[in-house]
Amino acid sequence: MKCELCHKADAETVIRKKDAGEEQELFVCRACAHVASRGEAAAAPQQDASAPGPSETLASLPLMGMILDAAFEIVGRAVNLSELTCPVCGITRSEYRKSSRLGCPACYEAFAKELDTAVLEMHRSLQHVGKTPEKARAMWQRQQLENALNDAVREQRYEEAIALRDQIRRLGPPEGQQGGPA
Amino acid sequence: MILNLEAGMLSKRTRDVPADGIAMSCRVRLARNLAGERFPDWATERDRERVFVKVRDALHAEAPGFLVEPVAAYEEQEREVLCEAHLISKDLLERAAGGGVAYAADGSVCVMINEEDHMRIQGFASGLDMQAAWQAADALDTRLERHLDYAWTPRLGYLTACPSNVGTGLRASAMVHLLGLRLQGETEAVVRSLERMRLLVRGIGGEGSEAAGQIYQISNMDSLGMDEQAIVQRVSRICAEVVRQERNARIRLIQESPLVLVDCLARSLSVLQNARLLATSEALEFLSAMRLGASLGLFTRMKVAEVDKLILMMQPGHLQKVSGMVLNPEERDEMRAEYLSRKMTNVKLKC
């Protein structure tokens, strides 16, 4: 990934920069980071509990760079990592708010809290009534059981896990095996 | 790609309009998306093309009579023609890679691919036969579901790019001609009451457009919390009431202000017969009056269905397609005036 300031050298570090009141993270080369640190305080990595610590952030830069590269390639826009982001498509809450369009079906889960409010306001309901696509319903049911099975295994609830596994087996092999976030 | 305007596809809906023609046509649209795929607005070209291929393959398997093509396969004028016939939207016109359209030979059902959602399945019918439109869209949707994995949850139903369509993904709309209410100064009250009933009222061109020619689209606002049949029946019932009000307005117009009505019709016919330049919006206003007169049987040699055909054929895309020429706006206005004047030559006001 190239430095987001000079666009020449490889990005090696991350800095925080205030732009029009909004704080942004920029992936920059050492030289630009040095220049920036003279003008502004160098960025401290995000502090929320789920975020990696400073050393982790730097250590995971190559991987993060690849993800960001992909994001740039995919949607041609900068990604602000400090915001609530859909784990599947990578769009942020502010991007969704700006365009009023979600990025993918998984955004309904990622932004569930505020979407529920919006949906309720729009439709005066939060419960679908009507057509049920059989394939999607079966896929959804399988997904729920698999999630429950993973939780049970992780939490060492083995008896429950066995019951869930048997339930999944009874459903038969997954059709098409396409899967999805929905 | 060659569009055959005379094949009946685009004019079928106008041929079957009921005699008084207040309800012009109706449409039921289902928004559908594929699980695990980005919605079109955030997708890459490659993503959209992959979705196009999946939908195309499903259509080939389940609807072999459909013509399925990328929008880019059509020439610019042909795209305009599809847009004017409401088979595709302006948004889809602007979509580059992956945008596609599929339609049945009789024009009763079509699918927009990679518009705002991966699929917009649309069923069409004449007048207020919304059940027919719903059944056409529903049947195709059910067949396509065998081949495609829809993004759906038991709680929110069909997941859509914009939360305003989530749930059933269904929008039932009717196109109605309300010139009688306009001439009686009652349109605004009707529109306000429709909005209070949580119905959307828009112009002929859909979202954000004005009601040129007093042609309105009325559709449901809510797509979640009510099943498809209930939504379709509700919109249909309310639109039938609007039609009744328009019919009453027309009767009152004849009884109470015949001179206002006849003056409006005579002026419109005169302009259409004699104008040398006519812009689309201007022509639509006069054709709207012709439509009212035709529905009341006040013109010789002019029926509602013929006016509807003229409304379609005088639009820029159709005009250029028929003439086989690319025209600038002034040339189009000249050709439109000449075309309409020719069509009105033998038309006379009966009173």
Describe the structure.
The complex is a heterodimer of chains A (182) and B (351). Chain A is mainly alpha-helical. Chain A is 48% helix and 8% strand. In chain A, helix 7 runs antiparallel to helix 8 (158-170). Chain B folds into 2 domains: 23-247, 2-Layer Sandwich (Creatine Kinase, Chain A, domain 2); 257-343, no CATH class. Chain B has helices at 12-15, 45-62, 76-84, 90-94, 130-145, 179-183, 187-196, 228-256, 258-274, 280-295, 304-313, 316-323, 329-344; strands at residues 23-32, 67-70, 100-103, 109-113, 119-126, 152-153, 157-158, 170-177, 199-202, 215-220, 299-300, 348-349. The longest helix of chain B is centred in the C-terminal third of the chain and has 29 residues, at 228-256. At the A-B interface, helix 3, helix 6 and helix 7 of A face helix 5, strand 6 and strand 7 of B.
Quaternary structure state of the chains depicted: heterodimer
- Rg of chain B over CA atoms, rounded to whole Å, is 21 Å
Strand line-up in the sheet with most strands of chain A: 1-2
The assigned CATH architecture of the largest domain in chain B is: 2-Layer Sandwich
Major beta sheet, strand line-up of chain B: 2-3-4-5-1-8-10-9
Alpha-carbon distance between the termini of chain A? 31 Å
* Average of pLDDT of chain B: 91
Number of H/I helices of chain A: 8
User: Looking at this structure, what is the CATH superfamily of the largest domain in chain B?
Assistant: Glutamine synthetase/guanido kinase, catalytic domain
Low-pLDDT sequence parts of chain B: 1-12
Structural class of chain A: mainly alpha
- Main sheet of chain B, how many strands, which sense, barrel? 8 strands, antiparallel
